[in-house]
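Dear support,

Our group has been running a series of protein-ligand predictions, and this particular one with zinc ion is the one our PI (initials K.S.) wants archived with full inputs and outputs. We had some confusion internally about which version of the output was final, so please treat the block below as the authoritative record. The input we submitted was:
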Amino acid sequence: MNKYVTVQITQKGAVPSEPVEQGKRCPSCGIPLTQEVLEESLFVCPGCEHHLPLDAPGRIHALADPGSWREVAADLRPEDPLSFWDVRPYSERLEEAQADTGLSEAFLAGTCRINGLPAALGVMDFRFLGGSMGSVVGERFHQLVLAAVEDHRALVVVTSSGGARMQEGILSLMQMPKTVVALDLLAEEGLPFVSVLAHPTTGGVLASFATLADVIMAEPGALLCFAGPRVIEQTTREKLPEGFGRAEANLENGQLDMVVHRRDIKERVVETLRLLEGGVICRLEEPVREDEEVLPWGSGAFAQAFARAKELAVASRSWLLGRDT
Amino acid sequence: MRERQPSAAVWKVVERARHPQRPQTLDYIEHIFPDFQELRGDRVSADDPAIVGGMGSLAGRSVMLIGQQKGHDLKQRQRHNFGMARPEGYRKAQRLARLAEKFHMPVISFVDTPGAFPGADAEEGGQAGTIARTLQVFSGLTVPTLSAILGEGGSGGAVALALTDRVYMLENSIYSVITPEGCAAILWRDSAEAASAADALRVTAQDLLALGVIDEIIPEPRKGAHKAHRATAKKLARALEAGLLELEELSPSERRRLRREKYLEMGRLAS
Ligand SMILES: [Zn+2]
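Confirmed final output from the archive:
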């Protein structure tokens, strides 16, 4: 039963596709930055740790184990259901975004392994019309959830979005309930969802699936708010404090679990999934043997805990293993 | 080049949808649910007057009513914050929806808001996450759920109350991903282009019916709902009652399955 199309893309093509112009400087501290330095640091300034935008292929490169990425719903292409026209036709804006980014949409979905863990991974790309959520983004999210459910994988999504895509009108607003309903399918299977909120995540994406994750992480300095500081200042004539709506403020306000440096995200995601899975032990009737096979990336206590979880995973058809092992 | 109503006609609908004398949630409640009993508070921190709610009866059944209230005059509008809810308002909606589920009461929500409140305190209180969790609560209900867009259905703050089995729109209401003014300011870089934006966004009840987003348009008296509260309320009551009886024919799990399928199809492209 092939409900979605799988397309293999080579890992080689999964490095940030946008070359840094000559003479680029860090927008925060001003030191000169080269493409080589940025690729090495996952686009974090080595001088001040400012997190520069990382595009979707770069995200996949940073998170998925080499060679493990299989794209889901890659054949979906955006359409122009409203024949939307502002100062330019939407269809023209779409073509331009596709040409500029080399992507078909603002969201890439796929299955992969993250340090060996089978995952369903979704990444947004802010370069593509501000990472806005239209019908294809919502449908790819839905297909990604179905892929997670089918293979019993954990769901991991990295967001970066200005919100709903205006040019698809009410249909883009409907992607909010749609993605929320899709997550019910995941929850019913007891599968975990970890979201990583990157700069910026606002509007309809933050107000739907992004904030419904079991564990929410954010990158340092990321702007995370519903309305956006400009709208707030215009509407309420309030002067907003420094750092308003940023990841660190959201952490203080109880809206997320942790702020994680980009270089540590992969490890933190894996560790979070491992701990979430550890709860399976409560369902065990027999005590666990300690002589389990150790998975290749682990060692010591970590590996033992993991091995224990692995045995349980076999018994409980867990997402730790997936069906393709 | 398109078979569209001229934007002047669309803008007339926008103006009617926002008319200060247009009937609002509490007006409809007064006309349709004489035994209404208001319930207040989110049980966490506050009671948000931008969202009102409580129990009443329709066709002999107890139902839960939840809706945004804008207020008619300035004093009321300030009290209800122009129908722009804060997280506590959405938490109140969640609480009432859960209460309804517990006692097998259908949920009827009334949407009338320019949007969720864009204020610093609302953001700090988790406006986005609270809207998401409200959608999640509505997604999980098994009781019959119905919503009606009364006037303005503005963006995420509106859809938060409208993930329902049936969605109705009053003839002169609008429902949009962004306010026409906001869209014009961003795409045209000129908020004076709001009428063009309203046209392009397709915000009228006819548009939404054609796009498969709503189920039915509730006609208004010829001069508009603002001139005929009672007559409009009668039409709304009739539609809600008919919808409720239809939904009662289905089992709880069937209702949830159909609602789920409906939303998973939204915007899905034919391929
Ligand atoms: Zn720097």
